[in-house]
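Predict both folds.
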Amino acid sequence: MKRGIQGTIVMIMMLTGFACSSNKAEIKGIVSGGADKTLTLERLDVNRTTLIDSVLIRKDDSFSIKTQLDEAELFVIKNQEGEIINLLLSPGEDIRLSTDNNSFGTDYQVNGSDESEGIRLLVDHLNQTRHELDSLLLLVDSIEDPENPQMGLIRSAYAQTIIKQKRFTIKYLIEHMTSLSSVYALYQKYDEQSMILGSESDLQYFKTVADSLEQVYPNSSLTKSLRADIEQKEREYLAEIKLNQLLEMADEESGFLKLTIPDREGVEISLSSLKGKVILVTFWASRSKESIKALLQLQSTYKKYHSSGFEIYAISLDNNKINWMKSIDFNEFEWINVSELSFPESRASLLYNVSAVPTTFLVNREGDIVAKNLFGRNLETWLDNII
């Protein structure tokens, strides 16, 4: 009996030890030239950081930090000069970090965490953008005459650089909608005042990410903080910020792809003519049962949101006009129906890199593609946030 009790106690201790170890995360690394300097580990929330631990870099430039986690969380490692490296740690992860003390935060390698590698890519791309913007501002400073024609070219290049960075961030969000690294992407900044997604209309991305994360991480403190911040932004949102003014410089630059296709009557309808509406660009074919089924499912969504500014621009990849028209009439597709009738030689499918049907692209009122292949409730969730 006594031996049985002892065995039970040993088993409990083993299980407890396993549970504790599975909740630990460790960061090991090398900071070349950083011997005897201090590193701090801080938990990163939406609007604040919390000090977790600090360590001294060893004589051989190596360091090790351990922390206890119940869920995936964002962290920063900060050196004595205040430069930071952003990480997304999950329970049980063992991360390897390597950098140089002189390029801490701007040039580093991370292994053992795909999420942290995603953040590194975000940081790297933004650093490149900052460098391009700073170079353009130096050019401005070198021009004494404000009427110099080069000034207009520089302003245009500056605005286009801003637009490219924003589209990169949006693309990342679309591809990582259920990752907590998307929260980091939402809050990236050019400087202390200017966020990449800083205009009031960009709140749609915050809402959509929050909706997605609440399905996957409903109890995450980061998810809850994001939702609370969205509610705060809705109550007290700044009317204009510097980033919004810069984007207005390129107001004539449309995000719409140049696409003009005839409808069944031969009337050419351009995608850009629908600017101001939320558009679902839909590729389908009358020969495809799957795409017809998908379009039939879109009918209820179309009726629900059409009066609020939602339109479907359905591009049929067909080459037989009679079959195309029969399919439209039989299934009562009442949205905009167009076709080049040149399949498989379709310019539209090349522009959008479409290799299969059905394929859809959700385009916001400004002409930016914000999501791909949405149907049913997922599509309606997006529409609730951007219409």
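Second protein follows, with its predicted structure tokens after the sequence.
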Amino acid sequence: MEWILKIRYTLWGPFTIVLIAATGLLLTLRSRGVQFWCARQLVRPKTTRRADGITPFQALCTSLGGTLGVGNLAGVASALTLGGPGAIFWMLVAAFLGMATKYSELVLAVKYRQHTPEPIGGPMVYLSRGAGLPGLAKLFAVCCVLSAMGTGAAAQGSAIAEALAPVLSVPRSTIALVLCAVLLPILCRGGKMIARVSSILVPFMTVSYLLAGGLVLVTHADQIPGALTLIVSRAWEPLACGGGLLGLLTARTISDGFAKGIFSNEAGMGSAPIAHGCADSESPCAEGMLGAVEVFVDTCMVCLLTALVLLTTGAWQSGADGLTMTTQAFSTVLGDFSPWFIGVTVVFLAVSTVLGWSFYGLTCLKWLRARPWMVRLYPVVIVLSAALAGCVPLTSLLLVTDISAACMSFPNLIGLWILSGDVQTETEHFLQRTQTRKK
């Protein structure tokens, strides 16, 4: 455990934090501040569509399915445990910058996608075709295939077992077998089936969780101002300790905030562009705006809601961690039904994440021109990874997912810096066309 922590805090040290923040700032400028104009424009464009990919809505749900997961519940609780309330502030900062980052990723994914014969897009494609870095593209694709087994399967399988074992009073191994039986038929039917299932699961689970969390906040409304004050005031504690800028950057508050923000909304990881690059939208910027919306929904709505629930109920000081902390918070309103609600929510979130990441891994395998037997075997490996991880503590796996996120992010961020000029060009053309249509 000690060596995992050492690797994790080395990868998420000052250099990584500065790189992610600088990339977000650069792309905010290149995209003309997409965070401020995307909501206004999102309902206006009518994009042309092709018939050879998944629909933009399915791409959004597949990507949100891969994004919304255990990070929104256990990840936020873990950030509070490791970095304190101030970590939530930096999670939101990472999300604000991440909106521009994810917008840019999706713009490039659609711009440079290839048809073989189905459309394939993502960092491996724009690193190869746009940036002219085929070696880095292959490195990203390999990291994504492996991350799908870790971030996408193992962490989610452990979360399902941890959430359901106390409620159902059954061994974790039994839960693992049931998980295999549910996931394998869907994964074996390929990417379009994954997209269709995600388009049903994601809207339902998101609305349900927001309603339940909203009920808890209404009950503890008098505690919300204090919770918000705590988030802001604790964010600057490293500076107050006299550590200066280096102390701020190396503090766990910042590291955990950025790491859990990336793990949760995946902006900069390069995963979401794989789903959107396979969508049948012909407008890079229209698809890119969906990416900005994903980050907002994931972090500024779902993660912030979880954080406020944990802070207003006092669960963050209970000594519990992960899903146990989240369950305790909801129990203040839901009572004995809380473990059931969290258990069901985790199942929906985790299953959608496994489906989304399986789509990413399969797409990267196809782009790498893997042999057919490897493509057929991959869903089985994903399911086994989720099932076997049910016997591993979730806290340890969350640290591994932070390491996985860093390994995927580095090649992708290099590509975003090189191709940031393309993002600016596409954005300017899009905004000019929009102004022309209004006239």
